[in-house]
Write the structure tokens for this entry.
Amino acid sequence: MDHPRYPRPVGLGPLAYGGDYNPEQWPEEVWAEDVRLMREAGVTMVSVGIFSWALLEPERGVHEFGWLDRLLDLLHANGIRADLGTPTVVPPAWFYRDHPEALPVTREGHRHAFGSRGAICHSSPAYQAAASAITEQLGRRYGSHPAVALWHVHNEYGVPVSDCYCEESAAHFRRWLGERYGTLKELNCAWGTAFWGQTYTRWDDIQPPRLTPSAGNPAQQLDFARFTNDAILANFKRERDLLHRLAPGIPVTTNFMTALSQCQSIDYWAWGREVDLVSNDHYLVAEDHRTQINLAMAADLTRSVAGGRPWLLLEHSTGAVNWQPRNLAKRPGELARNSLAHVARGSEGAMFFQWRASRYGAEKFHSAMLPHAGTDSRIWREVVALGRDLGALAEIRDSVVRPDAAMLWDWESWWAQRLDWRPSIDLDARERADAWYAATWDAHLTVDFAHPEAELSRYPLVVAPALYLMTEAASRNLRQYVAAGGTLVVSCFSGIVDEHDTVHPGPHPGALRELLGLVVEEFAPLRAGERVALEAADGGPALHADVWTEFLLPEGAETLYRYADGPAAGRPAVTRHAVGGGQVYYVSARLDGEGLSRILQLAAAAADLTLPRLPHDVEVVERVGEHGRYLFAINHGEQDADVPLAAPGTELLTCAEVFDTLTVPAGATRVVRH
């Protein structure tokens, strides 16, 4: 294996299996029944205490730990490990009684009220002190408790509120800017404040980007997004450092939400460097027709944030969630497919929200491992079966996923592209990332995600679906990658601005112009609903696009497709440019899925990357470890499927010996050890 050993949960031998356990919602006599059923289901770890601040500290400085002592002792006696939360996502009512100023303020100037979760101004000194105090109490009391395998700080940072526009946040923002720029001259230069007469002569004049009558300064808004991420991260690090001191040897995590549609305010590249163990929560967008693709994308992104090391799925659902417009139940077998797809892509287990379905509160209709229907239910039977399957896969621990290609993603570029007054409201970076990822999934390629400045030489093929913001360092990195023999695919509206949202000098795309061998003379967005065709230079099938086109002028690039109609009719649309030992493809339109697949096939062939011949809805991923190679084959289709094998092996879930072909029943998963 080519990675350092990651800090797994202490004392956890098998894969992690369990869920958020909220025993405080139930009479204590229920706890023994819960633990008995956990053992029946094969549960190995549960997350506890995440929302319990008001019970642990019912009034300031008054602590009641007896119930948590008894719970942890009960879990330990039954061989179940604890992922112990610091409850700092929901300060108690008494805290807000004393410190109403710690409630966050919206951009429009409205202060949120207590009564939900995550209503926190992360710049509040009162919140920081109170959060540190309860975390220290927990660290001192439970740092050596034999049940504790993992510390779980806070919960889903950035959800549902991340930024705050109050006066305390404003003062904190100014301090952050002072550290970043040093002088007002540097800040004014970076923000381009000569535009619209916004030049600052005193630090105190700078405010958060509150509501303005027209579009605000985009560089200011981008820096405020960075500041918000840093302010939240500082609070995590404060709690983490306390726990490292008080409970040495126990890893500290916090549950990410890397799925691009679910959390927009956190730069997980930065956060991945700060946690001991990367963990993630993922919930299907139930009304999507191919939910397995977003699931795979979230898992691949989480693994990449972990630096390729194993990670942990800390929450997903057994069935329906409760917060989507239409909360669709999972189909029979989908619970196992979802769980094992995360494991295939690097997770060291499958945890859920939640263990026992709640009878009250906002999440009472959220599914659980132990549903309202009890043990005589489909969900319970599938939960028990999954526990057996995960037990049979314990040997895959510490193995790593073998990727085929990489996709570039930068949260800061996404933040910048989402700001006001871009050429088209319809061109969305997340949508392009989703679309290009779907094309790689359909091509049966396993994808790592990478920051644009990351080392890329190990990947024969790299795709950049949306890099509106590109630093000079990223530009140099991509030039070096291609010149050394790599194959790069770049999508439209990339390389346009620098880290301050300032347009790169010269014609577009400034940071990529030399590498792409072309000039973008003008953006040519399309009307709503308008579509254009792209004709192939070699006479092949046409491609189709909507939303976005560009006027291209090649300066060394070869034209592969031209616009057949639309505003750029007759002009180049897709190009290829040879640079050193490699080549770069540029796609100047928002192609549909069929078009993306065609370009991906061309690029894969140029990269000498063989696309597997597999049934359309079969997902195949390989993990490699000390005990062998593990081929996960997940059949999302309605017909049995045959998967060719490179070598004979043992199927771990059925204990069957397999040879040149693996048959995967409809809706099932198989795992072969070679």
Remarks:
- The chain has a mean pLDDT of 97.
- Residues 618-673 form a domain with the Immunoglobulin-like fold (CATH 2.60.40.1180).
- Residues 293 and 438 are 6 Å apart (CA to CA).
